[in-house]
Every structure is written in C-alpha cells, then in structure tokens.
Amino acid sequence: MAETKPKPKLNKKAVEMAKARAKERVKNFSEVALGYNEAALEEAARCLQCPNPQCKAGCPVEVPIPQFIKWHRERLC
Questions:
Q1: pLDDT tens-digit map of 18-42
Q2: Helix crossing, 39-48 with 65-76: angle to 10°?
Q3: Which of 3, 15, 46, 73 would be 39's cystine partner, CB 3.0–4.6 Å?
Q4: Phi, psi angles (nearest 5°) of residue 19
C-alpha cells in the first residue's frame, strides 16, 4: 500500500485590511477601509490554500476566482 503524505496545515487566519483611524473618520466621508498593500499577497496565498473553494459556486458571474488570483499573483511577483 502506498504511503500517504500528511497534508500541510493551512493558515486560516485572515489578514486584516488597514482602516482609517477614528479621529480621521469623524472629519470626512472618505472610505474607512484603506485596502490591502503587501498584505494582499499574504491574503491571496491563504486563499489559494483552500481545499474546497466555495467562492467558485458563490460567484454570481462565474469568475474562476482561484485561477484569477493565481494570474494576478504571477504578474505582481
């Protein structure tokens, strides 16, 4: 019988997106979420580790999200 390799542990903790400070937010109507920076690559890597991507079935326009992320990642790195 063939030996099975143990599956790698997934990093399931999401990367927090940067947010504007409360002292700044009370003075304007700008976006609270500031978006991702280098952390986006970490978040994409976490997403690509998903063993059962529910995003495929949940996307209303049927975007193949894991392939889409891989495509962007290859162009950024």
A1: 899 999 999 999 989 887 777 777 7
A2: 140
A3: 15
A4: -130, 150
